[in-house]
Amino acid sequence: MSIALWIVQVVVGASFVAHSYGMLRPNEQQLRRRGLVYVLEMPAGLRVFAGVAEGLCGVALVVPPLIHVLAWLTPLAAVGLVVLMLGAMVFHIQRKEYDPYLALNGVLLVLSAVVA
To answer: How far apart are CA 1 and CA 21, in angstroms?
Structure first.
């Protein structure tokens, strides 16, 4: 079970760190090509908050247990990601973006809950 949990932590952490990079340093052409137009249409404050929160929580899923320092941050980061994914789902429902976004948010929510 430990190996499976590590795999989940690394995959979820890496996906949140990668997404946070796109939120904090948006490249209009690349985001449009990848179908992530909502990043460009978000209010700047919300985009920066979400990007910072996703990046920090993604790092906190992997680094503390890896170096055995402040490992109690990992479940807290996972709970934070669950809350963030609930907010993302509400955001996408309000924008009527049901197809790929809700499913991905739901999967990341469940995986983050497993880590928590």
So the answer is: 30
Which two tokens mark 116?
């928590």
DSSP string over 9-38 = HHHHHHHHHHHHHHHHS--HHHHHHTT-HH
Give dist(CA 85, CA 102) in Å, integer: 9
Structure tokens belonging to residue 90: 């509400």
Are the CB atoms for 31 and 48 separated by under 8 Å?
A: no
pLDDT in tens, 27-58: 888 888 887 788 888 888 998 999 999 999 99
Q: What is the pTM of this model?
A: 0.87
* CA–CA separation, 116 and 114 (whole Å): 5
